[in-house]
Structures are given as C-alpha cells and as structure tokens.
Write a structure and sequence with these properties.
This protein is an alpha+beta fold and 103 residues long. The chain has 2 domains: 31 residues; 69 residues, no CATH class. Strand 1 and strand 2 form a beta hairpin. The mean pLDDT is 84.
C-alpha cells in the first residue's frame, strides 16, 4: 500500500498490530485473579488437629510447632480452590495423617 506521506500508513498499521499483540499477551498473563493462599516465597501449612486452620511458612523453613505440611498433591494454592475447601472441613494429626483415617 502506498501513501502520500512516505510509508506513514504502513508504519502506523505495523505499530497498531504490534501494540495489539503486546496488549493481548499482557492481558493473558494477568487473567488469574484468584487470591493465593501464600506469597510466592512461602508455602501453606495446616494447623494440627484443626480443620481450616493454617499458616504460611517461608520456603526452606520447617513448619512451627503445632503445624504440619499438607500431604503431597493436596496443598491449597488459591483461596477457595479444591484443597482449600477440602481442608476447611478436614484435619491432620501431628504426623500429617488425616484425622480419623484408619490407615
């Protein structure tokens, strides 16, 4: 396409396409608006014997007394996700086993 201002239209179209692509990628990266259970430098732990109780511990540190790690694969990541909801009605003992589980 040729215009009277020496390629200005082509440049404008290219900038428009690039701007739209960058805007779309930025929006796609920020679509997850759910609240995280803990910050990125922390992991969630469960309160021993108490459903729904928990805290966040700095990565690399052990849970404090009265808290245990959630079982692998059952760690809540976001508020009201599958595991956050599950652990609001279930508790772990001091060994990280489900309270009342006969195993």
């Amino acid at each position: 396409m040729k215009d009277s201002n020496g390629g200005g239209l082509r440049r404008t179209l290219v900038l428009l396409v690039v701007g739209t692509a960058v805007g779309g990628l930025t929006a796609a990266c920020s679509l997850d608006t759910r609240d995280a259970v803990c910050r990125g430098s922390e992991y969630p732990v469960a309160s021993v014997g108490s459903p729904g109780g928990g805290a966040c511990v700095s990565n690399g540190k052990q849970p404090p007394t009265g808290y245990v790690r959630y079982p692998e694969g059952q760690v809540p990541q976001h508020v009201d996700d599958k595991w956050d909801t599950y652990w609001s009605t279930h508790a772990l003992d001091d060994q990280g086993r489900l309270v009342g589980d006969p195993r």
